[in-house]
Specification:
Chain lengths: 319, 367, 514
């Protein structure tokens, strides 16, 4: 106790400046900042620096002249785009395809994860999991090949089945009304399994005693799924949903390129494929950049809206 | 007759047997505490009663009905878990009502039950909160509430207080006891904390390595432990154990160790052990500290005095082993550092066989 | 420009100190001269000095090319070229596919040197070549009147031909069809007569690797599908630029084609069968007729060892209702591929002489056949590939590996190189096509100025999309071409087809003199 009198009261020392505090923090945790560095560099290099190039959406861009030396043209490219019926159609198709992909495709991985969670036989579980993850690792070109073969009118498995049931063969991939179901279905088949991993991980994080407690309380497996599993992974579901909404306009472009035909443009042509075809015609990067910028602004708005809604109605949000 | 009966309960995981034939009768309204070190099989036994673990062999009877193959929900038991198992996405009221909703009770029943239970547990002001917004003690109460609300025949507690700090634990312990007194429901309570066991139990079951070592009221176990394990497990600090050689002086017995001669009670069983080793059990509370000059004292080497307020713990060495004495500070505070040994009445010493570790016969005292 | 004058002055200086050789004499320079090169096309994504052809060229010319290719890690030449431009440092020589498009845009912006005067003064062989074929000179001239690149000039006339299962015809007792009506009869017989004899009605009468080749059948009904070797291209009719898909003949052709498709005469899966269609349908003994390249399609006659009697023969284009026999697809005489001179090149005279070297005899032989004594020997004054080389695998692929037949080099191809490894059946077919006058002049493309290009870019891509959508819909039967035609034409006009045609027309007149 007597020692206390020798210690200077802390309040008398000069207040530490902000700069000094930062130096202190850097000194203390420098290892963490070093580890953070590669990500920051990556972000700056690959996400922030390219933003400089966005200005070509408002310029008459020539690769040779460079970004800085190309003349400004204001909103000309946007006018060109919005005066083009095919671009409007592409936006509509993008939104429709995305909306249905989300509506149908989003719950599937959750469902799969719940189903896997209920499987008790480990061997069966592992086997089925591998089978549903597999398509994710196959290149889109091969997936498209499989889809085309499966829906081929002469010997495709689908039409063979239709004929066996007494129906007439349908040339699915040239029918505008069939494109979306096939495309969305393919997307689900390809990605649902892999996407379910996130939910499986979330389910694995639910404390087993919650289930034990429910068992003692008399809950059936069905009730446990609805009253414990789903509410417990709900935050994960909401975060995934917000992320998905952010990517809603990023329709899997290569898969569309591989599956569509002029005959199905009506329902299949999305913003990205539209840009792709425009770009082929004389390298119109400025126009493509304008369309891309429009896409990004839309996606940003959607994510902000989804996040705000989620923040208000559930307690989960991205930021 | 809503008692619980265990007959030769065995639990095996593959080739490994972890519970080796437990027999236990829990009477109606009785509060039984299963206590033992971790891995002794107490939790497994409780979970078998709850139905969360399959019973490998033996029979569990609840309320006169064999329940080995009865689903947990139909055993009419309620369980309180160590981590409370509260549903994070539900508020307190919904957590309490969960079991009732599962059982499709009517809205009115649910509402009145929540009110009642919340009243009993003092949760009325917190019904709208989620578990994340509650303190540890409140969460514990909610977990209790979830069990109470179902009005089961048997309460099962699986270390319900071990996640709480010491002060809250003492407080909640008392609440559990009060609640039991009020509701009078048969309760089986698992803990590794002998203080909880002593304070809560009507009867304590001491388990060790998947077996029951001793069953009895707290005082019975405290006074008359059947073996060195029970002796060392109950009591705080635990009973000191010293190995001594028995000598007979006239008609009296003396325990000889490390140059000390400790008078022992006149037990018939000692006659046969003269010249052999026995374990002498000495409760820290029963000794009288002695300073220089006191005759017939057992000499110890004092190395630390822990003052706890009204009492103090004297840590010493005796026969190269730690030896603890609990002393009253009100009378001897100033002299504690001068302690050189102790004396103890022979009838307060508990003597165990040197080989089997079992207590010798004829020394039980009324609890 | 100041830079350029400066370098010209410097050149004049060096020219004084080193004796100037008479044109066409080798070596081009006395002291070895190094020039940097960007060379990129699908088969070779970088320049390799160790190619035997290049080593020989270096020995002869004393000009030493150094690889400065950007984007060698991709086989997408457009991407590589854009990377090169973005880097701002353009090598002395740039050789790539589709260079015409690039030089026409960036040449006037100053990225590439105009070659007209250089050719006139220092490239006698190239000048002679272009003087002989003014339409080719016109084709490579940019909108500003300058020539910015030296192209790869393919040789030989024919590309694709109609092929038919001769053995099926024989089996069904049919003659080779001479008219479109006979083609229909034959295809119906293929469909119904079970020529493959497996008892199943699984024959695919007409098939194609590219669905555009099914559309090609429109030419049998007096329609047109393209004016060049590129699908859906514009064409020149009587000095007027037109688009084949906006002509009456096309309407009638599509109407008939739709009927054929509905009747199962054309592969019902033609839109999705893809590039393996020919391989699959021929080796499974299912396909009857197609329109495809002479050389590779003739090669399928090797299947005769597996399929009894298999004979897949070229036949002359059948006559349309008006009696027209048209081989619409042919080799284009000038490609948009080749090489150009970067703006920073300080040795334009030596470079143009180097370009000219490949139009002189030694250089042309080198670029076409490889190195004497290695890939070929001179026999009776003609280069002949050695037997060892011919047996070593596909000749063109082998030549790519030694630096021959590089399409990113400006050089005139020699069809003799190809004849030597073209199989008998193909040569027979080519002879058959040579007997008739089936070819038509091709549209060699126009170079538009900035304003014209803007008008073109604004509308053409969408028009083309619309055309193809309607085309497939009509063939698939989800629309009726006759009923839709007026709407279709009105829509095309509304989308600006006439504007596109008129800017192309003005460019055409400027370029080819109408």
């Amino acid at each position: 106790m007597s020692d206390a009198s020798h210690i200077k009261p802390a309040t008398k020392t000069a207040p530490i400046s902000r700069g000094a505090r930062i130096v202190d923090v850097l000194k203390r945790d420098w290892q963490l900042y070093v580890m953070l560095l590669p990500t920051i560099i990556w972000l700056l290099l690959f996400l922030y620096k390219p933003m400089y190039g966005l200005q070509i959406a408002f310029k008459d861009y020539s690769v040779f002249r460079g970004i800085a030396n190309s003349p400004w043209v204001g909103f000309e490219h946007f006018e060109t785009l919005f005066n083009n019926d095919q671009f409007i159609r592409a936006i509509r198709n993008t939104v429709v395809i995305s909306f249905w992909s989300l509506l149908i495709g989003f719950p599937v991985p959750i469902l799969l994860a719940l189903l896997f969670n209920e499987v008790l036989n480990q061997k069966f579980k592992k086997t089925t999991q591998t089978i549903v993850y597999l398509p994710h690792f196959i290149s889109s070109v091969i997936i498209a090949g499989i889809v085309i073969a499966a829906f081929a009118p002469s010997a495709g498995i689908v039409n063979t089945a239709i004929r066996a049931l007494g129906g007439d063969a349908i040339y699915f991939l040239t029918k505008p009304e069939w494109f979306r179901p096939i495309f969305i279905g393919t997307g689900i088949w390809q990605e649902a399994g892999f996407q379910s991993i996130v939910y499986l991980a979330a389910i694995a994080g639910v404390s087993p005693t919650l289930y034990e407690s429910a068992v003692v309380d008399g809950a059936s497996r069905w009730q446990m799924m609805w009253k414990i599993t789903i509410p417990s992974i709900l935050p994960t579901i909401i975060i995934m949903l917000i992320i998905r909404i952010g990517n809603i306009l990023e329709v899997s472009f290569e898969m569309i390129i591989l599956l569509y035909q002029p005959a199905t443009y009506e329902t299949a042509d999305v913003v990205n494929t539209f840009i792709y075809r425009q770009g082929l015609q004389g390298g119109q990067y400025d126009l493509a950049a304008a369309a891309g910028l429009f896409n990004a602004v839309m996606a940003f708005t959607l994510v902000m809206a989804a996040n705000a809604l989620s923040k208000r109605y559930s307690r989960t949000s991205l930021w | 007759m809503s008692g619980v009966q265990l007959d030769g309960i065995i639990k095996r995981y593959g080739a490994v047997q972890v519970v080796h034939g437990v027999d236990l009768n829990v009477a109606e309204k009785e509060f039984v505490v299963l206590v033992g070190p971790s891995g002794c099989g107490k939790s497994t036994t409780l979970r078998m009663i709850a139905g969360l673990e399959e019973i490998s062999d033996g029979e569990v009877t609840i309320d006169g009905r064999m329940v080995n193959r009865v689903a947990p929900k139909d055993r009419d038991v309620a369980m309180v878990f160590q981590n409370y198992a509260l549903y994070p996405h539900l508020n307190v009221a919904d957590n309490i009502a969960f079991g009732l909703r599962i059982r499709r009770e009517s809205k009115e029943v649910i509402a009145s039950s929540i009110d009642e239970v919340a009243g009993i547990l003092g949760l009325t002001d917190y019904l709208d909160r989620r578990p994340a917004d509650l303190s540890g003690g409140q969460r514990q109460r909610v977990a209790m509430g979830r069990a109470i609300v179902r009005r089961p025949k048997v309460f099962l507690f699986d270390e319900p207080l071990s996640n709480l700090d010491a002060k809250l634990r003492t407080q909640m312990r008392a609440e559990i006891k009060r609640l039991h007194n009020r509701l009078g429901v048969t309760s089986i309570y698992v803990t590794h904390d002998q203080v909880e066991a002593m304070t809560l139990a009507d009867r304590i079951v001491v388990m060790h390595d998947g077996r029951i070592e001793q069953v009895g009221t707290p005082m019975e176990l405290f006074m008359n432990p059947v073996n060195t394990f029970v002796a060392s497990f109950l009591g705080s600090p635990p009973m000191n154990q010293v190995t001594a050689k028995v000598e007979k002086v006239g008609s009296d017995f003396v325990g000889v160790f490390a140059g000390n001669r400790l008078p022992l009670a006149r037990l018939g069983d000692l006659e046969a052990r003269v010249g052999q080793d026995v374990v002498v059990g000495i409760r820290p509370e029963y000794v009288t500290p002695a300073t220089d000059g006191v005759k017939d004292q057992v000499r110890i080497e004092l190395d630390l005095v822990e003052t706890l307020g009204s009492e103090a713990l004297l840590h010493a060495m005796l026969a190269d082993a730690p030896f603890v004495i609990k002393a009253d500070t009100t009378t001897a505070a100033s002299k504690l550092s001068d302690v050189t040994g102790f004396t103890i009445a022979p009838e307060l010493i508990r003597i165990f066989d040197g080989e089997t570790d079992l207590a010798l016969a004829g020394q039980d005292r009324p609890a | 420009m100041r830079n350029l004058t400066l370098s010209l002055a410097l050149l004049a200086g060096t020219a004084l100190s080193t004796p100037v050789f008479a044109d066409g004499h080798l070596p081009i320079v006395e002291e070895p001269l190094e020039l940097s090169i960007h060379l990129h096309f699908k088969r070779a994504t970088a320049y390799d000095e160790n190619w035997p052809v290049e080593q020989a060229a270096r020995e002869m010319t004393n000009i030493h090319l150094k690889n400065a290719t950007v984007g060698s890690n991709t086989d997408n030449s457009e991407e590589a070229f854009n990377l090169l431009l973005a880097s701002g440092d353009i090598p002395d020589i740039v050789g790539t596919t589709r260079i015409k498009e690039y030089v026409n845009q960036y040449g006037p912006e100053g990225a590439f040197q105009p070659l007209n005067d250089l050719i006139e003064e220092h490239a006698p062989n190239l000048k002679a070549f272009l003087d002989e074929r003014p339409e080719l000179r016109a084709a490579i001239t940019s909108a500003d009147g300058n020539i910015y690149y030296v192209p790869y000039f393919p040789d030989g006339k024919y590309g694709r031909a109609y092929f038919i299962r001769q053995d099926w015809l024989d089996k069904l007792g049919l003659e080779t069809p001479e008219t479109v009506a006979e083609v229909k009869t034959v295809l119906e017989a293929f469909r119904d007569g079970d020529p493959n004899g497996n008892g199943l009605k699984d024959e695919v009468p007409y098939f194609a690797r590219q669905w555009e080749e099914a559309v090609r059948l429109v030419t049998l009904f007096d329609g047109r599908t393209s004016g060049s070797d590129t699908y859906h291209d514009f064409m020149v009719d009587d000095g007027q630029i037109k688009h084949p898909y906006a002509t009456e003949g096309y309407r009638d052709g599509i109407k008939n084609l739709a009927e054929w498709y509905a009747e199962g005469l054309v592969d019902s899966e033609v839109f999705t069968r893809g590039s393996s269609a020919r391989d699959f349908l021929l080796s499974e003994n299912l396909g009857g007729m197609t329109h495809d390249w002479f050389a590779s399609t003739s090669g399928y006659n090797r299947l005769s060892s597996e399929i009894d009697g298999f004979a897949f023969k070229a036949f002359a284009p059948p006559a349309s209702p008006s009696g027209r026999r048209l081989a619409e697809h042919r080799r284009i005489p000038v490609k948009p591929d080749g090489w150009a001179m970067g703006f920073g090149n300080e040795h334009p005279i030596e470079t143009i002489k180097y370009f000219d070297f490949y139009f002189a005899e030694e250089g042309r032989r080198l670029a076409n056949f490889g190195v004497e004594g290695q890939q070929y020997e001179m026999v009776d004054g003609e280069p002949k590939f050695t037997q060892e080389f011919l047996d070593g695998g596909p000749v063109n692929a082998q030549l790519y590996q030694v630096g021959g037949q590089l399409v990113a080099r400006g050089f005139p191809q020699d069809y003799n190189y190809e004849i030597q490894w073209t199989n008998e059946i193909a040569l027979e077919g080519i002879a058959l096509y040579d007997q008739g006058d089936y070819l038509t002049d091709q549209f060699l493309g126009v170079s538009m100025n900035t304003d014209e290009q803007k008008t073109f870019d604004k509308s053409w891509s969408s028009i083309r999309t619309y055309m193809l959508e309607r085309q497939q819909a009509w063939i698939l039967g989800t629309g009726n071409v006759e009923a839709d035609w007026d709407d279709y034409m009105a829509t095309l006009e509304g989308m600006g087809l006439n504007d596109v045609l008129s800017v192309m027309q003005s460019a055409y007149v400027r370029q080819y003199g109408g």
